[in-house]
Amino acid sequence: MGDLGRRRPRDQPSTTMANLAVELFGIRCAHPVWAAAGPNVLDGAHALRAAQGGASALVMKTISTEAARVPKPCMARVGADALVNCELWSELAAEEYLAKEYALAKSSGVPVIASIGYRPEELAELGPRVEATGCVDAIEFSLHYTGRGHEEVLAAARALRAAVRLPIIAKLSPGMGDLGEVAEALEPYVDAFAAINSVGPVWVVDTERGRPLLGSEDGRGWLSGRPIKPIALRCVREVASRVKVPVIGVGGIVCGQDAIEFLMAGAWVVQVCTAAILRGPQVYGAIAREMAEWMEAHGYTSVEEVRARGRSLVCGMGGVDYAGQAPQVDEERCTRCGLCVTSCCPRALTLKNEGRARIEVDTALCVRCGLCRTVCPHGAIT
Ligand SMILES: Cc1cc2nc3c(=O)[nH]c(=O)nc-3n(C[C@H](O)[C@H](O)[C@H](O)COP(=O)(O)O)c2cc1C
To answer: Residue 267: CB within 6 Å of ligand 1?
Structure first.
């Protein structure tokens, strides 16, 4: 953690006030935590709850020209902060959103972004109707079911660009190949990218009932939440390094520190879906508050400063001679919990119980893998 920034000594009060406000393509937000498309924002009433919970902008559930027929069950929890789903897009007809759901969402006072899908002709039809409501600040289009070919993806972006004047966000899925390459090809047609949609397909089985957890024909679904965060971070970095327009990070964000990681990967703002489903809409505000606390504790005054720090991150071995560096245990912080000992495959760490218990490091056995530093819950190993 210490190498992420300029951590202020614990006993020193913060002298900085972090400003979390962000502006992208004319949309101003009090902080960078948005609601992502999903059942957390499935209609206007849910959108209002998301705004009350602290979301600074609302990306509504994806609609298409035909309402989806979603197989049930369509969601299952698969561990802490993780879900699988086969929810497709909205089961509500587009007409409902156009007639009242976007207006209700807009009454929250925060920016509203419609999400539409999927084929070029569907985007060309829906885009202008969404724009005509006057209740929407931007349009996100999902490429989740568009097809994998470059041409199909480009045709979708071109069709929507030709049909609307509102800012457009292309939402990328992790299975689309080299996302940097895809984003570069799409950039002339869009104002921003959101990365990523859920990961998969995946398959999960209920061993007690002897059937898949999800009701889709083949039991397949999509994984979201905590486990996908490292994939999403890699995708965001890949896209942000190739395009000039803003990138929106989404995937596995549960707390403020997660969101900070996305800023360092190159995101301007983040979106949250699974954590809001499992923990409730107040999670948006909690994440924003934790971001502010982290920034103040580390001496950052703006979101842009955190992003800039990400651009200058040292990658690779950064000139450090790891061969000469064995782990050092801070006796004050160490609680002798033994987690580092258990996970040390070369058996270089031992819990010595003679006299005062302590962790002993055998520098000859240590292979400098770095695992112990990240396993220790107390930050006792450097
Ligand atoms: C149940 C469920 C439904 C979703 N529906 C949509 C959708 O309609 N449109 C869309 O673009 N993304 C949809 N997503 C994807 C999320 O917006 C988000 O990109 C993904 O879940 C990763 O973020 P998370 O880990 O915070 O959930 C859905 C996700 C879940 C879990």
So the answer is: no
